[in-house]
Amino acid sequence: MGALISGTAAYVIYRREQLVLAEERFDPTKRKPRLVILGTGWGAATMVKDLNLENYEVAIVSPRNYFLFTPLLPSTTVGTIDFRSIVENIRSYLRRHRSNAAMYYEASCTDIDHVNKKVHCKDESDVRSAVSTFELEYDYLVIAVGAFNNTFGTPGVRENTFFLKDINDSICIRRKIMDCFETANLPHVSPEEKQKLLHFVIVGGGPTGVEFAGELQDFIKEDLVRHFPNLCRYANVTLIQSADHILNTYAAAISAYAEKNFQKEEIELITNARVTDVRAGEMTVTLKKTKEEKVIPFGCCIWSTGIAPNTVVKRFCESMPNIQKNRKGVTTDHFMRVLGAEGVYAIGDCATVEQRALKNKFVDLFAQADADGDGSLTQAEFAELIRVVTPEYPQLKEYAYKVGKLFAEADINKDGELSIKEFEQLLEYADKKMTDLPATAQVASQQGKYLAKSFNDMVTGQPIYPFDYKHKGSLAYVGGNTAVAEIGNQVLGGLATWYLWRSVYLSQQHSLRCKLSIAWDWTKTIIFGRDTSRF
Amino acid sequence: MGALISGTAAYVIYRREQLVLAEERFDPTKRKPRLVILGTGWGAATMVKDLNLENYEVAIVSPRNYFLFTPLLPSTTVGTIDFRSIVENIRSYLRRHRSNAAMYYEASCTDIDHVNKKVHCKDESDVRSAVSTFELEYDYLVIAVGAFNNTFGTPGVRENTFFLKDINDSICIRRKIMDCFETANLPHVSPEEKQKLLHFVIVGGGPTGVEFAGELQDFIKEDLVRHFPNLCRYANVTLIQSADHILNTYAAAISAYAEKNFQKEEIELITNARVTDVRAGEMTVTLKKTKEEKVIPFGCCIWSTGIAPNTVVKRFCESMPNIQKNRKGVTTDHFMRVLGAEGVYAIGDCATVEQRALKNKFVDLFAQADADGDGSLTQAEFAELIRVVTPEYPQLKEYAYKVGKLFAEADINKDGELSIKEFEQLLEYADKKMTDLPATAQVASQQGKYLAKSFNDMVTGQPIYPFDYKHKGSLAYVGGNTAVAEIGNQVLGGLATWYLWRSVYLSQQHSLRCKLSIAWDWTKTIIFGRDTSRF
């Protein structure tokens, strides 16, 4: 009887979790709810694309009036693809819905007042009206503002290196690369200076850093060598990575393939190294293993080591110190609702989905699972628990299809049942699989799509399920017409993967204009090479 | 007998003028002569394109490493054409010749030392080597550095308006237009402020100003109206012209057509007006006829009123105050040789071909023409003079095919011969036709082509004739898919002329890449509209 009650209770908890959003019914006689979306990146743009704009009074606020297809950003730094080919004005997404109610405002959100349900905004661009600040009231707020670059407090990074997050970064890098070559080409420059000016250093071995290194080496070997035949022997590309391997969030085989390709392409790799100081034209690097300090001169440095929370997100979290404790960004539940702020959602790089440790709840979970109340779990009781609680505890997800194997492993004394001790150990083991979702376009766009569906379903009263990330694979271009890919358990690399890389990115474009433009840019690069005009 | 001598003398003078450059024979055992070309604009690029680079040790110096197809620059300010579609790296011109001897240096020439045959150069870009200056020695120097914008001393122009001479100007204007619209679109902006922010003022009614006005109005009417449906009624384009009419160097019919088209396109036109002062967001304009002063508020102002000499050109002329007296630029003879500086040539916007008044030489000319020495000129004697001296006095050019008519008109007493008095009056009349060549792409490119041929012919010992400008017509886009054209005595306007405008400019591209890129950009604009992303 007790078991029945606890079983029912568990089901009810889960159903409530499913339906909680659907309870907020819409009254058609009232005005439309005001939905403010902060941002125009992967999270926001994907959400706007799928959202039924007729149901809400939508306002989008972002200092950037376009969506940027970030995975192809490294290609624009050397002109393989033109800047405008990978951007799409956010208003194009609004026009698709024929709704005049949806507005976009080019401004930055400076403050979120979740108590009074208001956002404070400021026009920070060059052209401003007499009053450059304004407020927007909201019923629902979606924070999708992305994140800043993380310098890990390294001195001199902001002044002497380039980030690679936005089109303007890419424009500056393209100009800088050419300026380094043009200056090295002047008649009075010594060979040592040429070498320094043409040393391009990338700090950070994630996909952005790796792809940029590959694109730059292509540019040097394919195009610059024709324009500067006597200069290219001075040019070097170096990638500095703090971990053992580059692309270290990918499978080990991918890293190995990428590293081998770098060797072939003559891209120097310094692993287990930490940049401790950057000055104009040189940096200090500490090699972790030997503790040796090295001074590396450079002409141009790109910094791409990870993300840090944005000013407004930081301030917002600090306003709720007891609830928002994560320093990486806004913590949300599995419905992307921000903890402690009613009606506020967060997605993308600025958000972290709360991870609940199973171990802390093992007594409750055991009681919930022990349907017959006999103090031990049968495989059937265990399987049912996994099924019911997985949405709340994604670390269990990978066990869903191998419950039997997991059960057998956890049943240490092989009595065919799990004691509470055995159960505790199993949960402890499962918690080790608990990791934050990576700060990728893929996560942000899935969250955007999820939130659009949630907001659409809210109106129609459909049940809303927790967000469930489905990793579709990883791709990276590593130079020399070679890409690497991780799709499911498959690991691929080479020329064919490069075609795959291109066709996947082409198919993911939100607009036909971008698709055709990118295809044309690629064709142009093959036929005519990349343009080296500097402006 | 005297007549024979003077006739022969005239012929000899003319022949010497033809051959003077050819006298400088090349000794194949000696090193190649060093030819330094300053600039990468119309004059320099056209010259390099046609020059046989094998004959000289060529060095090109310019702060801009690309040739820019300036006639399409207004189209790039609104995105009808992309920036990179109208530029071509100067090294592409050098590679065509398979010569490694030709070098390009990205630097500005700061000083011309024509006495020691040296130029002083400086790298003024962001990336510089330890020493940023260098010198180049030359045997021949071609000055083709173009000109600055002329503000006519109007206060505030440099700080508060945009010029439209280079790609970077165009990039800034495109960003600014979008910024004005985005700011006007913010929720708290008053209708008065919207009107001000969306008032685009162009100062100067030459082809650049007129084409920009047309392109901008197209952008507003075709694209921005879709993105800002409630905002475009506040948008206005105004062109301020100091003369009576816009395009006032063209035929009157062209001006009239353009003005009618502006009316149709709702581009406001203020003629006979002089801008006396520009401040942030407003300017003072004096209406010439009424002397009335008007304050005009604006969101964005483009200044396109004419040219002024570049710093290095000014300094160079000031070093020869007795010879170089023209304030507009370097004075050259009809072979483009700079007066007073041996081995130095100048072409394009920085150069002015010396105009010799016929009247000052009427006694000598009369003696030269009077072959039979009878104190009066027969029509045959007169015709022969015209033929011989026209290369030196281009103001005679238009009489070459109507010598009979001119002679009849000048022969006031109708005695069938010209007295010295009648001859003097005729020359005075002809001198009135003496005008400087306009500062256009067409003049500069013809001069570049001419100089390339001169330098090629110098080596082979071919005779070199004075430069002879052949006006091939004028074209201008005036908005609303309408262009105007002046070809020979033909005046055209309308949609068909727009197609002509497009096909002429397309055919003039120096590279296939630019041709295809422009064609694709036009197609993209027709299908998808112009991109309004702001970066």
What do these coordinates show?
2 copies of one chain form a homodimer. Chain A has 535 residues and is α/β, with parallel strands linked by helices. Chain A has 3 domains: 31-147 and 309-354 and 439-460, FAD/NAD(P)-binding domain (3-Layer(bba) Sandwich), CATH 3.50.50.100; 157-306, FAD/NAD(P)-binding domain (3-Layer(bba) Sandwich), CATH 3.50.50.100; 372-431, EF-hand (Recoverin, domain 1, Orthogonal Bundle), CATH 1.10.238.10. Helices cover 37% and strands 19% of the residues of chain A. The first copy, chain A, is built from 17 helices and 24 strands. In chain A, strand 22 and strand 23 (483-487) form a beta hairpin. In chain A, helix 2 (42-50) packs parallel to helix 15. At the A-B interface, strand 4, strand 5, helix 6 and helix 17 of A face strand 4, strand 5, helix 6 and helix 17 of B.
Helix content of chain A: 25-40%
Number of helices of chain A: 17
- What is the total number of structural domains of chain A? 3
Number of DSSP E strands of chain A: 24
Structural class of chain A: alpha/beta
Give the termini distance of chain A in whole angstroms.
Answer: 78 Å
Determine Rg of chain A (CA atoms, Å): 26 Å
Biggest interface: A-B, 64 and 64 residues
CATH class of the largest domain in chain A: Alpha Beta
What is the CATH topology assignment of the largest domain in chain A? FAD/NAD(P)-binding domain
Q: Tell me which CATH architecture of the largest domain in chain A applies here.
A: 3-Layer(bba) Sandwich
Oligomerization state: homodimer
**Main beta sheet of chain A:** 5 strands, parallel
